Amino acid sequence: MASISLIGVSITIICLLILHRFLFKKPLYRFFRISWPVLGMVPDLFLMLHRIYDSIVERLESTELTFLFKGPWFAGMDMLITADPANIHYILNSNFSNFVKGSEFIEVFDAFECALLTKDSVAWKTQRKATQVMINHQGFQRLSMSTIRSKVKDGLVPVLNHIAEEGTTVDLQDVFRRFTFDTSLVTITGCDDPRSLSIEMPEVESAKAFDDIVEGVFYRHVKPRLLWKLQKLIGVGIEKKMTEAGAVFDRVCAKYVSARKEEIKRSQGINSSVESEDLLTSHIKLDTTKYQLLDPINDKFLRDNVLALLLAGRDTTASALTWFFWLLSENPNVMTKIRQEIDKILPRSSSGQEKPSYDPMEHLNKLVYLHAALCETMRLYPPVPLERVSPLESDVLPSGHKVEANSKILIFIYAVGKMRTIWGEDALEFKPERWNSETGELRHVPAFKFLAFNAGPRVCLGKHIAMMLMKIVAVEILQNYDIKVAKGQKFEPNTSLFLRMKHGFKVTINKRCSS
Ligand code: HEM
């Protein structure tokens, strides 16, 4: 009886709060404060959905960087949210073996079941070692560099030139997502089909399927487990879309796998020194005497890894590039400084010229201010905004918070870069200078303060390639084009696995006169 009246009181208060929000168009309070009977903090979550990231940032700042989000009773949605570098260092490094992705993470990411992303313990260690060897392989590095350059020349430049000539507006975020999709597809599968970045901007079935899977995985994170499982069972809503997308991906990937297997068969014994090698080929050729836990004979193993590598490389770099060009438009002095550095260090190239005027390996590392501006972008807008882990055994974090075995911990990467206690009073300002020393060199920043690429033993394996790709694109655009942001847009992050711009990034483009 008592609990029924508690529910009644909760519902009445929530209705009043919602009414207040709609009548006065502003929230009663700015961040999660109240855990309601039965419903936990879900009403607050609902009221602040339109500014969820900033609400969590404010709450973290007011609670010494860690707080417990309470979900509804029995929904299994309680989670400890932290942005505390001491906790993060403990979880991702000093007590790494106790913090795993966990069984619920694997359920949520079931489309990636056999991939490195979902592995823990010994299986993760073996697979990470194998993937690291493949990514560091000279053949893959060569393929990545030549693919990025050719996609700039044959994909990006013609599209930017076309937009400039037509004088129309384009969504630069969409352009970058297409660019990184096409680039990743070649370096991961060895296939250059379909090409999503062209003047026609075609809708590509596999890119759409990929988006549906990512969207579905995100909703599984925020819905009660029983609800999405039920939706999956009866095949409705986003779960239905995910199943259909999985089938598209199975079909497309089977084509890539058989093409690579054919190619390997054809080239057997012909050439032992590999000029360039995509990651799918490296997976098929995996030495199972060395990596006994891996199963390259199994097509599902290959398919899940292709999908996970696309996930790792596509939206991450596209997101960082989008926020980078927006921040430059807001900070023209930074843009001028980057252009001056490029002009000083790189020989001038004209847009899309046949041979690059610089050697990426030799010259790009010298662009320290550009490097700093990219890091500063990802500090404020980390492409992967959060990371989820689960303790194997109950533990106490350096902040004093107790965490039970199998509970959920959310490392809120988005907040880490915004905390005044971590980055100083100017934390919200875009200042690439904070990454450079007085002599202009790159300053060392502890990985647990700058988490965009994760930290500790599970740090991103594609960081070097991602930085090269972003620098090549940035140089090409800054040397040859002026980007003008279209008026009347709102710039805010969406809520997804990746930090995209919710409404896109519409710009007009002018070609710069070469001096
Ligand atoms: C700006 C671009 C990128 C950012 C911000 C980024 C960020 C991250 C983050 C935060 C993680 C940890 C994910 C987790 O454990 O849940 C991660 C892992 C990983 N990343 Fe990246 N990434 C980027 C580009 C790339 C690229 C281009 C590749 C591939 C060539 C790549 C390959 C990987 C792999 C294989 C892992 C899994 C490591 C492991 O679980 O041991 N990443 N990345």
TrEMBL record:
Keyword Transit peptide in record: no
Leader sequence segment: none
Transmembrane segments: 6-24
Residues given in the record as heme binding sites: C460
Transmembrane is among the record's keywords: yes
Biological processes annotated in GO: lipid metabolic process
Cofactor(s) of this protein: heme
Sorted UniProt keywords: Heme, Iron, Membrane, Metal-binding, Monooxygenase, Oxidoreductase, Transmembrane, Transmembrane helix
GO molecular function: heme binding; iron ion binding; monooxygenase activity; oxidoreductase activity, acting on paired donors, with incorporation or reduction of molecular oxygen
Gene3D superfamilies (UniProt xref): Cytochrome P450
InterPro entries: Cyt_P450 (IPR001128), Cyt_P450_CS (IPR017972), Cyt_P450_E_grp-I (IPR002401), Cyt_P450_sf (IPR036396)
Classification via PANTHER family: CYTOCHROME P450
Family: Belongs to the cytochrome P450 family.
Protein name stated in the entry: Cytochrome P450
Native organism: Capsella rubella
